[in-house]
């Protein structure tokens, strides 16, 4: 559920996204990644381009042992090979947090609380970066608010990673762009140096909440694009669908957190486009299965990765209703996912609302 803006929230966005860099030498910092899925693995790969050592928290001893033995993740992005001398792999969240200045959270949102609520070490001066594109279900809120309210981690010690950046293309070292949102210029410079490489370019933003919400919304819209494809709608319709989706995203973002932003920038429109169209998109693939006749439950069970858009749709739908925000696309997708409404009939109704 979206929260009212706090005074600290109000400081998170003062200017438009900007890509200008003011480089200055930074003190070396230690960095860790929490998560062992595809995007977490991709982030570890990014960081090993610049860091002599990357700390990596994985879910269990099997994954830890497999990476240490074979030099790659046994389940996700198995083509990515690591020099294990550059990795410190652990299953102990406190060991990772204590060893790191910067912690990247890259678990699926449904597993975040059970992972980091085991923290008992001092984390007061750490920087926490969310690479999570979903709602924390136990708290029905975005990660930025969850960290602030549960752990008293203020926005000055937070950052958000946005795309467009599919893990599979990072694995292939195809040129990709990250947007990193943080309110502190010194933190932004530090993170630029950590992530920028020969195949990763970094843009800066101060719109922490806008970037986080847009990353959640684009997953829901990607499910809709997949449903349309599965139902047999063509590229012409899906182009109109995505055009309406970015306008609806702008309406939603203004309704929950109104600040100056340009939704045509890469972190918003770009991330929506790649998630709605790419065959790598797990949310699009989930929608495609539903459009082809799978039940929602069977479609979810057939996937070996978490489609964040499914879990987020419930919270986003209810937030829109609470704030009286018009979201016909989200309403349609929610009805299909949670009210067992017929996809074909729902999309036929939606076509009359799109322009």
TrEMBL record:
<dbReference type="GO" id="GO:0005975">
    <property type="term" value="P:carbohydrate metabolic process"/>
</dbReference>
<dbReference type="Pfam" id="PF01210">
    <property type="entry name" value="NAD_Gly3P_dh_N"/>
</dbReference>
<keyword id="KW-0444">Lipid biosynthesis</keyword>
<dbReference type="Pfam" id="PF07479">
    <property type="entry name" value="NAD_Gly3P_dh_C"/>
</dbReference>
<dbReference type="GO" id="GO:0046168">
    <property type="term" value="P:glycerol-3-phosphate catabolic process"/>
</dbReference>
<dbReference type="InterPro" id="IPR013328">
    <property type="entry name" value="6PGD_dom2"/>
</dbReference>
<dbReference type="GO" id="GO:0051287">
    <property type="term" value="F:NAD binding"/>
</dbReference>
<keyword id="KW-0594">Phospholipid biosynthesis</keyword>
<dbReference type="GO" id="GO:0141153">
    <property type="term" value="F:glycerol-3-phosphate dehydrogenase (NADP+) activity"/>
</dbReference>
<feature type="binding site">
    <location>
        <position position="282"/>
    </location>
    <ligand>
        <name>NAD(+)</name>
    </ligand>
</feature>
<dbReference type="InterPro" id="IPR006168">
    <property type="entry name" value="G3P_DH_NAD-dep"/>
</dbReference>
<feature type="compositionally biased region" description="Basic and acidic residues">
    <location>
        <begin position="1"/>
        <end position="12"/>
    </location>
</feature>
<keyword id="KW-0443">Lipid metabolism</keyword>
<feature type="compositionally biased region" description="Low complexity">
    <location>
        <begin position="15"/>
        <end position="24"/>
    </location>
</feature>
<keyword id="KW-0560">Oxidoreductase</keyword>
<dbReference type="InterPro" id="IPR036291">
    <property type="entry name" value="NAD(P)-bd_dom_sf"/>
</dbReference>
<dbReference type="GO" id="GO:0008654">
    <property type="term" value="P:phospholipid biosynthetic process"/>
</dbReference>
<feature type="domain" description="Glycerol-3-phosphate dehydrogenase NAD-dependent C-terminal">
    <location>
        <begin position="207"/>
        <end position="346"/>
    </location>
</feature>
<comment type="similarity">
    <text>Belongs to the NAD-dependent glycerol-3-phosphate dehydrogenase family.</text>
</comment>
<dbReference type="InterPro" id="IPR008927">
    <property type="entry name" value="6-PGluconate_DH-like_C_sf"/>
</dbReference>
<protein>
    <recommendedName>
        <fullName>Glycerol-3-phosphate dehydrogenase</fullName>
        <ecNumber>1.1.1.94</ecNumber>
    </recommendedName>
</protein>
<dbReference type="InterPro" id="IPR006109">
    <property type="entry name" value="G3P_DH_NAD-dep_C"/>
</dbReference>
<keyword id="KW-0520">NAD</keyword>
<dbReference type="InterPro" id="IPR011128">
    <property type="entry name" value="G3P_DH_NAD-dep_N"/>
</dbReference>
<feature type="domain" description="Glycerol-3-phosphate dehydrogenase NAD-dependent N-terminal">
    <location>
        <begin position="31"/>
        <end position="187"/>
    </location>
</feature>
<feature type="region of interest" description="Disordered">
    <location>
        <begin position="1"/>
        <end position="27"/>
    </location>
</feature>
<feature type="binding site">
    <location>
        <position position="133"/>
    </location>
    <ligand>
        <name>substrate</name>
    </ligand>
</feature>
<keyword id="KW-1208">Phospholipid metabolism</keyword>
<feature type="binding site">
    <location>
        <begin position="282"/>
        <end position="283"/>
    </location>
    <ligand>
        <name>substrate</name>
    </ligand>
</feature>
<feature type="active site" description="Proton acceptor">
    <location>
        <position position="218"/>
    </location>
</feature>
<dbReference type="GO" id="GO:0005829">
    <property type="term" value="C:cytosol"/>
</dbReference>
<feature type="binding site">
    <location>
        <position position="167"/>
    </location>
    <ligand>
        <name>NAD(+)</name>
    </ligand>
</feature>
């Amino acid at each position: 559920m979206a929260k009212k803006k706090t005074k600290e929230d109000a400081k998170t966005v003062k200017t438009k996204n900007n890509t200008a860099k003011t480089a200055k030498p930074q003190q070396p910092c230690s960095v860790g990644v929490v998560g062992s899925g595809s995007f977490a693995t991709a982030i570890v790969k990014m960081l090993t381009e610049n860091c002599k050592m990357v700390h990596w928290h994985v879910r269990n001893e099997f994954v830890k042992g497999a990476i240490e033995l074979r030099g790659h993740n046994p389940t996700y992005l198995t083509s990515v090979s690591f020099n294990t001398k550059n990795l410190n792999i652990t299953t102990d969240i406190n060991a990772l947090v204590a060893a790191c200045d910067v912690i990247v959270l890259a678990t699926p949102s449904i597993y975040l609380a059970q992972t980091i609520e085991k923290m008992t070490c001092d984390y007061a001066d750490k920087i926490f970066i969310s690479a999570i594109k979903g709602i924390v279900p136990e708290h029905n809120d975005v990660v930025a608010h969850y960290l602030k309210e549960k752990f008293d981690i203020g926005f000055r010690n937070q950052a958000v990673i946005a795309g467009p950046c599919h893990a599979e293309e990072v694995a292939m070292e195809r040129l990709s762009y990250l947007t990193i949102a943080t309110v502190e210029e010194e933190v932004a410079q530090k993170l630029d140096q950590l992530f920028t490489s020969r195949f990763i370019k970094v843009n800066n933003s101060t719109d922490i909440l806008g970037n986080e919400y847009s990353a959640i919304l684009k997953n829901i819209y990607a499910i809709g694009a997949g449903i349309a494809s599965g139902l047999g709608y063509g590229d012409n319709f899906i182009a109109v669908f995505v055009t309406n989706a970015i306008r609806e995203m702008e309406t939603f973002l203004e309704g929950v957190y109104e600040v100056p932003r340009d939704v045509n920038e890469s972190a918003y429109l770009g991330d929506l486009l790649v998630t709605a169209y790419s065959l790598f998109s797990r949310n699009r693939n989930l929608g495609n299965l539903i459009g082809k006749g799978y039940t929602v439950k069977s479609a979810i069970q057939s996937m070996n990765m978490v489609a964040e858009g499914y879990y987020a749709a419930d919270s986003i739908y209810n937030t829109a209703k609470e704030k009286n925000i018009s979201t016909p696309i989200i309403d349609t997708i929610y009805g299909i996912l949670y009210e067992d409404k017929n996809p074909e009939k729902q999309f036929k109704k939606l076509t009359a609302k799109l322009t």
